[in-house]
Amino acid sequence: MTAGQLDTVINAYVWFDAQLATFGPGVILAVGVRLVWRGTWRALDRIAAARETVTRIRTQAAPDTRPGTDQNALHTCTAIWNTSTREEKP
User: Fold this and answer.
1) DSSP type of residue 84
2) Are 46 and 38 in contact, with CB atoms under 8 Å apart?
3) Is the pLDDT of residue 35 over 70?
4) Which terminus in the chain has less CB density within 10 A, N or C?
């Protein structure tokens, strides 16, 4: 650690000690509450974004490749089957 870095660390400690002596332990409590609050909201935002992504992926129309799901072909075959090509004489 260089002399400048050591000086910076010492100054930060002195500043923190002065703040603690001036405002009391409530400063640490307030900072802790703020950090927990921010972390909680960030986590909730990430969970909401993940849920939206999952919902969007689930609702996207995927091509149906299962056999027997082509209704147009089924209706065409049924219509051809039911069409009488010969006429019966009475």
Assistant:
1) -
2) no
3) yes
4) C
What is the per-residue burial (b if ≥16 Cβ within 10 Å, else e) of 71-88?
A: eeeeeeeeeeeeeeeeee
20: Cβ–Cβ under 8 A, 6 or more apart, which residues? 27, 28
Q: Mean pLDDT, the chain, as a whole number?
A: 84
Across the chain, which distance is largest between two alpha carbons, in Å? 116
| pLDDT at residue 63 greater than cutoff 70 | no
Mean pLDDT of 36-40: 95
3-class secondary structure, 86: coil
How far from the centroid of its chain's Cα atoms is residue 13's Cα? 40
**Nearest Cα to Cα of residue 36 among 24, 44, 48:** 44
Report the C-alpha gap between 66 and 8 in whole angstroms.
68
The pLDDT score that the predictor gives to residue 62 is 65
